[in-house]
Amino acid sequence: MPRVPPKPTDRLVDSDRVRAKTVVTSINKITEQAPVKEACLVVIYGSDLGRKYNLEAPALVVGRSSKSDIQIDQESVSRAHSKIVNTGRAIRIRDLGSTNGTYVNDELIDERALEDGDFIKIGRTIFKFLSGGNIERAYHEEIYRLTTVDGLTQIFNKRYFQECIEREIARALRYRRDVSLVMFDIDHFKQVNDTHGHLAGDSVLKALAATVKNKIRREDLFARYGGEEFAIVLPEIDGHNAHQFAEKIRRIVEAADFRFEGVKMDVTISLGVAVLDQQTTDAAGLIKHADERLYEAKNAGRNCVRG
Fold first, then answer.
1. 95: which residues sit within 8 A by CB, 6+ positions away?
2. pLDDT class for 242, splitting at 50, 70, 90?
3. CB-CB contact of 245 with 236 (8 Å)
4. Which tens digit of pLDDT belongs to each residue from 3-27?
5. Residue 190: how many CB atoms within 10 A of its CB?
6. 277 vs 256: CA distance, rounded Å
7. What is the pLDDT of residue 21?
8. In this structure, what is the dihedral angle of CA atoms 158, 160, 162, 166, given to the nearest 10 degrees?
9. Which of 75, 96, 162, 247 is 20 to 30 A from 229, comparing alpha carbons?
10. Comparing C-alpha atoms, which of 72, 85, 18 is closest to residue 7?
């Protein structure tokens, strides 16, 4: 649900007007902070993935307008959405009365000092804030991370999943051990987007990933397979126990409290389970088998496990 702005703006202006919520910052706190050495924003989710924006200028406006210093051409982004200010002692981000708000680490903010590693979400784009003495090294480490991790959900991506499942299957065949695969997706996810908007949909995906991630073992591999579809590789778990695990995850998601901007959304998932056996001996076959079971679950009425 869009946030009602304190006062609409369609121009690239400084936000010196009277705000609905006044943010008071202690002068002592600013002066106590170490001087800013180097800092940048890196796009970790959205178009221009991996792009770096240096924050050397005193102020940069982020928005949909072509006149913005950092342009994000999305309907969910206001023409003048946020301003990033480099005081020389700190780097602060300020919302400019945007329609959908500015988020830092999933918290809706008016104004806030940024710290190394902060996640900034504007529209459907997510930036990571990097600062410190060796910004180039930090940037290249982040770029490498993007090859394995999904920027929105912060779990592994499809590329890394495909590499790892090959290794797990090779190990299972070599040592004659079990390995199972659970694939699931969100029921009626399009309705979430259509009813509440894509920002709410992104929120559900991220919250769902965090909920499931807390329930798996360290040796399990959890990845976003694509869109609203996820996959979990379970080394040394047979078909029966994989089905039990999938049912446990189904119940946890069904009972979880998913909210966006105070609006509760009922979320359920459908799951398919496959196990490495004499008929399924490679990654492609295991994925195909789990995907077929997933669609059986959806055809059976959703919010259930098949396999």
1. 15, 81, 82, 101, 102, 109, 110, 111
2. very high
3. no
4. 555 544 444 444 444 334 434 444 3
5. 10
6. 34
7. 42
8. -160
9. 75
10. 18
Confidence of residue 36 (pLDDT cuts 50, 70, 90): low
Half-sphere exposure of 196 (CA within 13 A, CB side): 21
Which residues are catalytic, by number?
A: 228
Q: Answer yes or no: are the C-beta atoms of 278 and 223 closer than 8 Å.
A: no
Burial of 264 (0-12, 13-18, 19+ CB in 10 A): exposed
What is the Cα–Cα distance from 186 to 205, expressed in whole angstroms? Answer: 9
Choice among 26-35, 45-54, 123-132, 261-270 with the minimum mean pLDDT:
26-35
User: Which amino acid is located at 200 in the chain?
Assistant: A
The secondary structure of 134-158 as a DSSP string is -HHHHHHHHHHHHTTB-TTT-SB-H
Distances (CA, A) of 190 to 23, 103, 123, 280, 289: 37, 24, 18, 32, 25
The values of phi and psi at residue 156, to 5°, are: -65, 155
Work out the end-to-end distance of the chain between its first and last CA atoms, rounded to an integer number of angstroms. 37
| Whole-number Å distance between alpha carbons of 130 and 199 | 24
What is the token pair recorded at 83? 């301003």
* Confidence band of 280 (pLDDT split at 50, 70, 90): confident
Q: Which two tokens stand for residue 155?
A: 């779990």
Cβ atoms 122, 71 nearer than 8 A: no
At 244-274, the pLDDT tens digits run 999 999 999 999 999 998 999 999 999 999 9
Structure tokens at 177: 């051990």
Q: Could you give the CA distance from residue 43 to residue 125 in angstroms, rounded to a whole number?
A: 7
